Amino acid sequence: MKIFLDTAEVDQIAPAYETGLIDGVTTNPTLILKSGRSLFDVAKELITSFPELKSISTEVVADTAEEMITQAEKFIPLSPKVITIKVPCTVEGLKACRILSKEGANVNVTLVFSTCQAILAAKAGATYISPFIGRCEDNNIDGIELINSIKTVFKLNSITTNILAASIRNIDHINDSYKAGADIVTLPPKIFEEMYNHVLTNKGLAQFDKDWKELNK
CA dist 145 to 121, 181, 194, Å? Predict the structure, then answer.
């Protein structure tokens, strides 16, 4: 069970990284745009600043597999074992995935919305596949059932591709994704912080604090 942060903001990653509970970081063009920086600069800083991360994603955007591979080749040398190339679940994206994975690169096939797409991504050699839970729900698709279906197929066929649940919007998405068999969830820093919170924990701490002060009068 692993947790990735879905952000390109280094200052938001640092507090979570210091807990020792974060295994990787995912980015996408939207997050990079919000950061106001280049993907290359962000990836380079993440590798330098957070050396314990096991995966740092860099998404390529192009019309052909050849162009995607050319973009990927700029990022992989930064840290071949850590950099993960994100490609879309399209014909060209899967072509790129097959070539890059054969060369030993980590590849995340993103924007997965069906079990069939997950099967194709696994056959192309994907390290990770990313079903989008929140976006599934936006389109009246049961994203959690999708994870369950993918997990069943992967298990029956001894497929080792990791299921990386994405588009996580609340705590229930995290719980349900893991229950359905996700290997990893990637979530915004705000949602990660919410994982700590529970009203009963807060009440208990308040009572302990009160009693401790009473003991030390």
Answer: 18, 10, 24
3-state class (DSSP) for residue 186:
strand
Residue 187's H or E segment, with its range, is strand 184-187
Q: Which of 142, 137, 111 is nearest to 126 (CA)?
A: 111
User: Among residues 2, 74, 86, 217, which one is catalytic?
Assistant: 86
Quote the domain boundaries for residue 144. 2-215
* pLDDT tens figures, 151-172: 999 999 999 999 999 999 999 9
- Does residue 86 carry a catalytic annotation? yes
For the chain, the domain total comes to 1
Exposure string over 82-101, b if 16+ CB within 10 A, otherwise e: bbbbbbbbeebbbbbbbbbb
Span of 137-146, 152-161, 187-196, 201-210 with lowest mean pLDDT:
201-210
Cα separation, 174 vs 165, in Å, equals: 8
Strand (E) or helix (H) holding 149? helix 143-156
The Cβ of residue 7 has, within 10 Å, a number of other Cβ atoms equal to 24
- What contacts 104, CB < 8 A, 6 or more positions away? 80
